[in-house]
Amino acid sequence: MVSSILAAGLIQAFLELTLYGVYFVVFSTVVYLFRRRTRITQSPMIFVVLAVALQFCTITAHWINTMHGTYLPFVELGGGVEAEKFYHTLGTGTLKIHVILSELTNSITDCLVIHRLYVVWDYRLTVVAVPLLFLAAQIASGIGVIHGFFVQSLENYRAASIGWVTTNLISALVISVYCTGMITWKIVSVNGTRLQISSHSIGRRHLRVAFIIVIESAALQTTMNLALLVAFHCTTTKVPNFILKGIQAVVLGLSTVLVLARGLGWTQSIPAAGTNPTTVSFTLDDVRTLDTEAPADPYVRK
Predict the structure, then answer these.
(1) In angstroms, rounded to a whole number, what is the distance separating the alpha carbons of residues 280 and 268?
(2) 3-state secondary structure of 199
(3) Taking the CA atoms of the chain, what radius of gyration do you get in angstroms?
(4) How many Å apart are CA 18 and CA 10, to the nearest integer?
(5) CA 138, CA 167: separation in Å to the nearest integer?
(6) Under a CB-based contact definition with an 8 Å cutoff, are residues 211 and 63 in contact?
(7) Spatial separation of the C-alpha atoms in residues 107 and 232, rounded to whole Å
(8) What is the CATH number that goes with domain 4-293?
(9) How many whole angstroms from its chain centre is CA 77?
(10) Could you give the residue ranges of the DSSP H alpha helices within the chain?
(11) For the chain, which residues make up each domain, given as ranges?
(12) What tens digit of pLDDT does each residue of 154-200 get?
């Protein structure tokens, strides 16, 4: 009978492999669209391209490390007791690389969502002041989490690192919830659409606008961070946290590339004085085209 930790290792590897396949397809689509439709000349665009490229590198390295980390216990060690020891040892190079790449991906994703909020709200520093403070806390606590993996054993890691892990997860959750709320508010106000969430009032249009909000905001990121926080504090076994932490990087990557593939992500801005009118079009055909005076869109050229 396969132990729970070995089963969790297989489940996590399968889920990450599947999700990485989806992520790679969407990422490739985004790269193709960027090459055809966008000129990378403005500083906001350069930032996004570099950040997404770095995120792709960390997610790909995380996936390769996961595949290597699955091969070692099940093929080289032959499963059984030796494989369980492998998963229970925090000091292995595979697990160290695993957590470093996860924290890097988490920080990059939060930088991107804060940047998206910054552009959506017409470059208002006051809007992003709160998430920037929590980003600093997240990076600092992430360093603490990584340090714990290098100096603690599995038996005392939870007790010794609970403060770092909790701070890291709460900081990431606050960033994603705040950005989700602010971006959702902007999308709804720009569309002039009020979502009526009831069994009698949700129509086809409302469902599509809700779909836009889920992708455009940090909703996927929020869900993942909340699930990790609940798994870390409310479960007695390590299995749920192990699986969720394993797929966190690729889920965050999907959240990012779905925004870019939507062709909407950083295109909504408040009208600026003295600028020429431009038309911003949502890609879903029954969300209306907006004619508004806004800065030239550096991301998607319609």
Answers:
(1) 8
(2) coil
(3) 21
(4) 12
(5) 7
(6) no
(7) 19
(8) 1.20.1070
(9) 33
(10) 4-37, 43-71, 80-88, 93-120, 125-151, 154-191, 204-216, 219-234, 239-262
(11) 4-293
(12) 556 666 677 888 899 999 999 988 988 888 787 777 665 444 444 44
Do the Cβ atoms of 152 and 161 come closer than 8 Å?
yes
Do residues 268 and 190 lie in contact, with contact meaning Cβ atoms separated by under 8 Å? yes
Q: For residue 276, report the phi and psi dihedrals to the nearest 5 degrees.
A: -80, 150
User: Quick one: CA dihedral 8, 9, 14, 16, positive or negative?
Assistant: positive
Residue-wise pLDDT tens digits, 246-260: 899 999 999 888 888
Give me the phi and psi of 277, to 5 degrees please.
-65, 145
Rounded to a whole number, what is the largest CA-CA distance in the chain? Answer: 70
| Residue position matching structure tokens 């603490």 | 144
Tell how far CA 75 is from the center of its chain.
Answer: 32
Q: Which range (83-92, 100-109, 162-171, 209-218) has the least confidence?
A: 209-218
Kindly report the number of other CB atoms within 10 A of residue 14's CB atom: 12
116: Cβ contacts below 8 Å, ≥ 6 apart: 179, 183, 259, 265, 266
* Cα distance between residue 184 and residue 169, in whole Å: 22
From residue 27, alpha-carbon distances to 15, 31, 220 in Å are: 18, 6, 16
Contact 297, 36 (CB under 8 A): no
10 Å Cβ neighbour count for 271?
11
Q: Which amino acid is at 77?
A: L
| Interacting residues of 148 by C-beta distance below 8 A, sequence separation 6+ | 157, 160, 161, 164, 165
